[in-house]
């Protein structure tokens, strides 16, 4: 989509969700309590899901809500509450002034670098005609443009992902197992 | 919308990096890493609009790997908490000598 033909409400909402995501990301980094930090991160992820939808990635936006804001953050909250991380000694966890200055300097340098990279000219030969994905979505629905390539060109990667998930499940169970049982043997 | 999305993505990524550097709670550091992954996902989705749907498929895989990473990482944090009764990274200094 070119910029000048976008309707105003589209641009407005993109900036709105972007601003909310930035504000809640800052709140997330600065909160002392892990639970409220996790809640702000959930807010950031919802805003990102809205931005995905505005960028013609409806399926990815749904997955963002279901997998990230739903499953992954619930696991985080579950662990925070399981470990009962709320007592005052755990709350004051920000590093000292020198670390903060270092982090600010690294952050500014990184930001400058990323902006320099985004100023680079994009290869014109690879760009699709405008609204290609929006037209595809309008023609075949939101899932078909992703499902087609996912189960054809990227089928091997998809299958390897299932092995990765199995390995992660086994690894999590092994790591989370109580050690007493190992001693008893 | 590409330039705006790249702007938001860059700032979110930087906030994540600053969070990793300034916090000592292992779980919050871990959530900052998730924020960085999300920022990169936004870049992928924005570029997918211009260069084709492969970017969205990559986001799909990034989400899968992030889920696996969260499961294993949180299991490591629980195991660590069982040994040291803390998730503060300043107290986890066995390798410091």
CATH domain topology of chain B: Helix Hairpins
Taking pLDDT < 50 over at least 5 consecutive residues as the criterion, the unreliable ranges of chain B are none
* Strand/helix succession of chain B: HHH
Number of E-state strands of chain B? 0
Quantity of strands of chain A, as a count: 0
Count of structural domains of chain A: 1
By oligomeric state, this entry counts as heterodimer
The structural class of chain A is mainly alpha
N-to-C terminal Cα separation of chain A, in Å?
64 Å
What is the correct CATH architecture of chain A? Up-down Bundle
How many angstroms separate the termini of chain B? Answer: 51 Å
Radius of gyration of chain A: 22 Å
Spatial shape of chain A: globular
Overall helicity of chain B = over 70%
User: Under CATH, the topology of chain A is which?
Assistant: Four Helix Bundle (Hemerythrin (Met), subunit A)
Can you give a write-up of this model?
Chain A has a single domain (8-91, 130-184), classed as Four Helix Bundle (Hemerythrin (Met), subunit A), CATH 1.20.120. By secondary structure, chain A is mainly alpha-helical. Chain A has helices at residues 8-30, 34-54, 58-82, 88-91, 97-118, 132-140, 144-151, 155-176, 180-184. Chain A is globular. Chain B is mainly α. In chain B, helix 1 runs antiparallel to helix 2 (26-51) and helix 2 packs antiparallel against helix 3 (54-84). The longest helix of chain B has 31 residues, at 54-84. At the A-B interface, helix 1, helix 2, helix 3, helix 5 and helix 6 of A face helix 1, helix 2 and helix 3 of B.
Keywords, separated by commas or semicolons:
heterodimer; A: 185 residues; mainly alpha; Four Helix Bundle (Hemerythrin (Met), subunit A); 9 helices; B: 97 residues; 3 helices; 0% strand; elongated
Topology of helices and strands:
The complex is a heterodimer of chains A (185) and B (97).
Chain A lengths: L7 H23 L3 H21 L3 H25 L5 H4 L5 H22 L13 H9 L3 H8 L3 H22 L3 H5 L1
Helix pairs in contact in A: 1-2, 2-3
Chain B lengths: L1 H21 L3 H26 L2 H31 L13
Helix pairs in contact in B: 1-2, 2-3
